Amino acid sequence: MNYKRIWVIEDMLDLKPIYQSVFDNSDYKIDFFQSFNDFQKTYKENNDIKPDLSIVDINLEDGNFFQLLNESDITLTDPFIVVSKSNELPSFELAFEAGAIDYLLKPINNNELFAKVSKHLRSIEKRIIESSKTLKSLNLDIQNYTNKEIKIIESFNFQDDKTLHRSEIVKIIWKNIAIHPNTLDVHIYNLRKKLKKDGHTIKAIGNGQFKFMNAPS
């Protein structure tokens, strides 16, 4: 069945039937997680099953979602929106800095939630199609690349000059998670070795900038 998978991370059980009623049709499959721990366990154990979109509450029964994410060993690279009762500016800033694509206030407006989720899912699907075209045009053997490596390649090729600063790459891949300064360099080094076989490379061009280009013959 061709449905969109939505994960809801929310500790208020009385909201579960509301979400079910909003997305009560065959186009959506909803999975609920009452705690960050439940979400983290499922996210790590199911590499082949990831959500098309997640809906995240900030304050959960086991703590602040973004603080727990920072302290965890997972990197959330899938798109998500925040639904929260907090109308404070720091909450908005924290959510968007962590990579949220939208922020909705509680109490939930059913029509707004459905309309925005549908809109974002259409945009995500369009981006996936464009990404597939980009990767196909590069003639890459995708099976040789990890999800993070593919995301790095896509990020370069969405830029007109195919240039990114190292801080941009870190934010794209690791969001708000603190990493060792050498982590990116290790990823770039491994990615270069794979890209060379497919006729491409990532070159350091100074001032923290990297450029995706054809490998010298």
Assign the structural class, choosing from mainly alpha, mainly beta, alpha/beta, alpha+beta, or little secondary structure. alpha/beta
Count of discrete domains: 2
Distance linking N and C termini: 46 Å
Which stretches are low in confidence, meaning pLDDT under 50 for 5 or more residues running? none
Specify the biggest β-sheet: 5 strands, parallel
Proportion in helices: 40-55%
- N-to-C SSE string, H for helix and E for strand: EHEHEEEHEHEHHEHHEE
How are the strands of the largest sheet arranged?
Answer: 2-1-3-6-7
For the record, the CATH architecture of the largest domain stands as 3-Layer(aba) Sandwich
The CATH class of the largest domain: Alpha Beta
What is the tally of beta strands? 10
Mean pLDDT across every amino acid position: 87
The CATH homologous superfamily of the largest domain corresponds to Response regulator
CATH topology of the largest domain: Rossmann fold
Strand content: 15-25%
Shape: globular
Rg result: 19 Å
Number of helices: 8
Features:
10 strands; Rossmann fold; Arc Repressor Mutant, subunit A; alpha/beta; 2 domains; 217 residues; three-stranded antiparallel sheet
Describe the structure.
The longest helix is centred in the middle third of the chain and has 28 residues, at 110-137. This protein has 217 residues and is of the alpha/beta class. The strands form 3 sheets. Strands 2-1-3-6-7 form a 5-stranded parallel sheet, sandwiched between helices. Strands 8-10-9 form a 3-stranded antiparallel sheet. The chain has a two-stranded antiparallel sheet with strand order 4-5. The chain has 2 domains: 4-126, Response regulator (Rossmann fold, 3-Layer(aba) Sandwich); 138-214, Arc Repressor Mutant, subunit A (Orthogonal Bundle), CATH 1.10.10.10. It has helices at residues 16-22, 36-45, 65-71, 89-97, 110-137, 147-157, 166-174, 183-197, and strands at residues 4-9, 28-33, 53-56, 59-60, 63-64, 80-84, 103-105, 163-165, 200-206, 209-214.
